[in-house]
# Entry
Amino acid sequence: MRILITSALPYANGSVHLGHLAGCYLPADIYFKFKKYLLKEDAIHICGTDEHGVPITIEAEKRKISPSELVKQYHDEIKDTFEKIGVEFTHFSGTARPIHHRLAQEFFLNIYNKGYIKKKEEQTLYCESCKRFLPDRYVEGECPHCGSPGAKGDQCEICGRWLDPASLLSPRCKICGGTPIKKDTFHYYFLLPDLEKKLYDWLSKKDYWKPNVLNYALSWIKEGLRARSITRDMEWGVPVPLEEAKGKVLYVWFDAPIGYISSTKEWAEKIGKPDLWKEYWMNEKVKMVHFIGKDNIVFHAIIWPAMLMADGNYILPDNIPANEYLNMGGGKMSTSRGVAMWVRDYIDKYHPDYLRFGLSLILPETKDSEFSYDEWIQNVNNYLANNFGNLVQRIITFLQKHFSGRVPDRKDPTELENRLLETIKQTKRNYVEFMNNFKFRDALKSAINLSSEANRYIDFAKPWDKIKKSRENAGSVLSYSIAVINSLRVLFYPFIPFSCKKLGKILKQDDLDINILDNPFIDGTQIEKPEILFRKIEEVEVMEKQRQEKKQFVSFKEFSKMDLRVGEIKSAEKVPGTDKLVKIFVNMGNSEKTIVAGIGDVYEVSELIGKKIVVILNLEPRKIKGILSEGMLLAAEVDGKPVLLVPEQDVPPGSIVK
Ligand SMILES: [Zn+2]
Ligand SMILES: [Zn+2]
# Structure
């Protein structure tokens, strides 16, 4: 089976937060890993940054950099975050690239020529002092529906309605604060009503979709679709490929989903098979699955399929398993409101699998879910460290101790072992069913249950007692136990890939085929020395604290690099044009050094001469007020004023201080 998986293109004006990860990228990655590595299907995972639109140009203007610099920064950061958290893409592109511009223009022209796009004269807001049209968020005003102030040109965040900038009451230019005028212009509209019937028929066959997604999409159609403006008067974006449309670009929501195609195309070119993308996008046998958050449903279940239908060259989505929201402290996480927990904050401090695991257990699959830090810690400690981690640890340690790490041969299964093997089979069936139906939480729980079952089996079978009487019997228990661990390595892989890879190294197994569960035994394998797979969060935090503290110590080796010596001040003079600086010549025994010191407001030049002081001699020389200072003298700081350190007895210049 060939599967084309996409994740919503992250908008390149902010970092990735936990809400994004749980809403879209983590489930997409779990599904991709399951299909590609466990089922060995021909799956690709396509994404890239969404780099156009008004929020980007506004942010770039605020920072006084170009939009392309801004999107480059965020593209790199977002890509890096995904790599570190283990979200794997076949290709990760960006919509500002030429390959995307070309494809988006072709797409536009094709459906324009087919009559699905019409030009419409209209009035939009124009700022005379800024000399520009004010699309979308370049204008704010009162919402014409609910009267809330601060409604943006494209949407009122209070009542949630989409707006047309020209409909705002008392509009203001976002840049200069001035009152815009209405000016004649024209825009291109995508004729959604022409595709309404076709969309409805298509959607009615999607009874296998998540009810929240399907019902939402159908309710939109029932309200009746309206033609949508798909162009803007601005510079940053994909230029409308028509002679008459100079100065206009495609609306970001029109060009962004085409990014799924252009990213696939770029991937195909990169791997030297430039036509390979067609095997996915133009092949009716391919199943296309869009992972998105629920705020994207209308675009992916209505507008995007309508665009694809109008174009006619490409396949339509097979499924859109949109997630609900992950909340924290009661509200939706969002970059624009600043209520967020950044993924970076976690991966700097904890193992990425801890976050993946904790989020996988609370994915907002059917309703909003709540992220709680305490619950996360509990889940990681209980399930990862105590349950799975402990299982692996005690079996592998025992195996090392009594069998030098060689997995012993098993005997015919006892009743207990027959039950265990049956549980593995049953778990495989349930797990595959859950995963294929986007029920990732249930799939993970089924794996956790198998791990608990294995712990119970070992508690009953007591290999540590058996070893006293019969090596063979104890060895057999280990063989069955390792078989379950090997099964769990496969089942857990989509959720905690880093740890399962590590476990695979220990067991010398790298295949992740789900069918390993039909025969998970690795009798006779000489395994590697065990490593602790999971620590409790408290231990991680203590280790992190120690690491931080350690960083503040200076090693003796570092200290001994400093050449500290006693010197005698031979002469001193004020540095002209300064209050504090004094230039002094210091006899260091074998040499004389010039030092510029900030002590002139406390010490008179005359009282300095003849003083013995402590000097760091091998400090990098530095020019101060044009004078090369070849060292630094040591002084205590008292109420912000220097007090020179002097030897308690008379010592010859050049004496080493240590
Ligand atoms: Zn409103
Ligand atoms: Zn203005």
In short: The chain has four domains: 2-95+256-291+324-328, 112-250, 372-538, 560-644. The chain has a mean pLDDT of 92.
